[in-house]
Design a protein that fits this description.
Blueprint: E1 2-5, E2 11-14, H1 20-24, H2 27-31, E3 34-35, E4 41-44, E5 49-52, H3 53-58, H4 73-80, H5 84-96, E6 103-105, E7 108-110, H6 113-125
Antiparallel strand pairs: 1-2, 3-4, 4-5, 6-7
């Protein structure tokens, strides 16, 4: 756990696993840190990691870069058994509802296996692009 003792008396604890560089660091590297001059964050020089107090308070884990394999839209559509146009329309509808799916890279969208699973689940719950009407009884 990473425990922060704030000046206003709050104690905030988050799992070290939220920050992949910290999770991969040795105990010695973790013990060597500096409070940033503006007192709004912490810096670990041995692992080149900076964490802001605001980031800790929002509770958003740091994403490990390059961990997600990229799949082009056409290949993803083939894996899902749908047409690329259908996949693009599905992603568009998902984004309209606030889902973030893949990463736009010029002429194509890079998707991960996680994105494909999310699209597949969404399509099961939203046949023909609309939410399933549930019986209120």
């Amino acid at each position: 756990m990473l425990s922060l003792f704030l000046e206003d008396g709050r104690i905030v604890c988050v799992p070290v696993a939220f920050y992949w560089r910290l999770a991969d660091a040795t105990p010695g590297q973790l013990q060597r840190f500096e409070i940033l001059p503006n007192r709004r964050g912490i810096h670990w020089p041995d692992i080149d990691e900076d964490i802001s107090i605001r980031g800790v308070l929002t509770g958003v884990p740091a994403r490990r870069p390059g961990r997600r394999a990229s799949i082009k839209t056409e290949d993803a559509a083939r894996q899902l058994g749908i047409a690329p146009r259908t996949l693009r329309q599905t992603i568009s509808r998902m984004e309209e509802e606030g889902f973030r799916v893949g990463e736009s890279r010029g002429r194509y969208r890079a998707l991960s296996e996680e994105d494909l699973a999310q699209v597949s689940r969404w399509r099961q719950e939203h046949p023909r692009g609309r939410p399933v009407q549930r019986d209120p009884r």
